[in-house]
């Protein structure tokens, strides 16, 4: 569980008024899946959530019934099948989308594209119609392409707000924090490493030069550490030997991002998370950077800061791949 984070949230919740303005409804699309179930469990534990709306094509009533027995304030409702999709999104402040097929051994995130692209498109269409002001937190891979798809859907519907559509890249940050803490024998709760770029392979750029506390690695140590962060998803896929991809760590990361959004919506200051968003920071039209979150999504894009020579080379390598991924998503959205 989140230990320190949830203790802080529990203290904060005692001071919340019961007025409607403090209510938060979170919808999870794909709530019965490998990521969706543990993600929903973690969100049910957050005392800042008033209502948890769970949607999937199968099993959602059972998942909702199970979670509803947990002694936390969030009311849980389950919705199942296409006919109930829009109802599940109505009134949502945040819609989290982990829906899609998982990666299997030998598959790249790109291999997931055709199936997951259609799923994200259809979910985005429903959100644009019934919850156009909600923040979208997209987990479904390949994030580098699915986020542009959702953005195009919202643009076509005339309700696009670039401050409110996010690709959740938090797992890259969580992994960077963990791996660096292990290497330097630090408490991972104390390590903070921004990760910029995208959410697959060479597009993942951990800014170890900006780590807090400051850490130093030799060039011989830095390259394999960076590659491990970039390929950590494959590490899990291989270890699960056909049984799936990163679900539990992704659920943790998705919950962390969602709870940060909620805290910012409720007026807490200095809430910063990295996220893949529409951006003019680089040549790529979408790019992940640290974001200052606020009541309406992004308050400020904090940019990439000063990069080391090694990180500048990583950025040069990432941009062409990122632009290709983004174009693939935009093209898909515009032809369907």
From TrEMBL:
Active site: 199 (proton acceptor)
Binding site for substrate: 103, 109, 141, 175
SUPFAM superfamilies, per database record: LDH C-terminal domain-like (SSF56327), NAD(P)-binding Rossmann-fold domains (SSF51735)
GO MF entries: L-malate dehydrogenase (NAD+) activity
Highest taxon of source: Eukaryota
InterPro entries documented for this protein: L-lactate/malate_DH, Lactate/malate_DH_C, Lactate/malate_DH_N, Lactate_DH/Glyco_Ohase_4_C, Malate_DH_AS, Malate_DH_type1, NAD(P)-bd_dom_sf
GO biological process: malate metabolic process; tricarboxylic acid cycle
Gene3D superfamilies xrefs: Lactate dehydrogenase/glycoside hydrolase, family 4, C-terminal, NAD(P)-binding Rossmann-like Domain
Lactate/malate dehydrogenase N-terminal domain span: 24-167
Domain Lactate/malate dehydrogenase C-terminal residues, every copy: 169-332
Coiled coil (residue ranges): none
Enzyme class (EC, first level): oxidoreductase
Swiss-Prot/TrEMBL catalytic activity: (S)-malate + NAD(+) = oxaloacetate + NADH + H(+)
Record's protein name: Malate dehydrogenase
Organism name: Henosepilachna vigintioctopunctata
Organism placement in taxonomy: Eukaryota, Metazoa, Ecdysozoa, Arthropoda, Hexapoda
């Amino acid at each position: 569980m989140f230990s320190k984070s949830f203790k802080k949230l529990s203290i904060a919740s005692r001071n919340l008024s019961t007025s409607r303005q403090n209510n938060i409804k979170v919808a999870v699309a794909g709530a019965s899946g490998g990521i969706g179930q543990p993600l929903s469990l973690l969100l049910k534990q957050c005392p800042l959530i008033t209502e948890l709306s769970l949607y999937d094509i199968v099993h959602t009533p059972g998942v909702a019934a199970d979670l509803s027995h947990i002694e936390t304030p969030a009311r849980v409702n389950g919705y199942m099948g296409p006919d109930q999709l829009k109802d599940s999104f109505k009134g949502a402040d945040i819609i989290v989308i982990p829906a899609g097929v998982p990666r299997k051994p030998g598959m790249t995130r790109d291999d997931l594209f055709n199936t997951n692209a259609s799923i994200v498109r259809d979910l985005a269409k429903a959100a644009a119609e019934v919850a156009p002001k909600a923040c979208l937190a997209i987990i479904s891979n390949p994030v580098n392409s699915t986020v542009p798809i959702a953005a195009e859907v919202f643009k076509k519907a005339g309700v696009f707000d670039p401050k409110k559509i996010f690709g959740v890249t938090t797992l890259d940050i969580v992994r960077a924090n963990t791996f660096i803490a292990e290497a330097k024998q630090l408490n991972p709760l104390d390590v903070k490493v921004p990760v910029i770029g995208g959410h697959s392979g060479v597009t993942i750029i951990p800014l170890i030069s900006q780590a807090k506390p400051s850490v130093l690695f030799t060039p011989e140590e830095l390259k394999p550490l960076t590659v491990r962060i970039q390929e950590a998803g494959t590490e899990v896929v291989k270890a699960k030997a056909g049984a799936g991809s990163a679900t539990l760590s992704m659920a943790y990361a998705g919950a962390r991002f969602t709870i940060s959004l909620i805290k910012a919506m409720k007026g807490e200051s200095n809430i910063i998370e990295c996220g893949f968003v529409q951006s003019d920071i680089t040549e790529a039209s979408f790019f992940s950077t640290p974001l200052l979150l606020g009541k309406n999504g992004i308050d400020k894009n904090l940019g990439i800061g000063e990069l080391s020579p090694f990180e500048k080379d990583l950025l040069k390598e990432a941009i062409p791949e990122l632009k290709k991924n983004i174009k693939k998503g935009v093209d898909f959205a515009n032809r369907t």
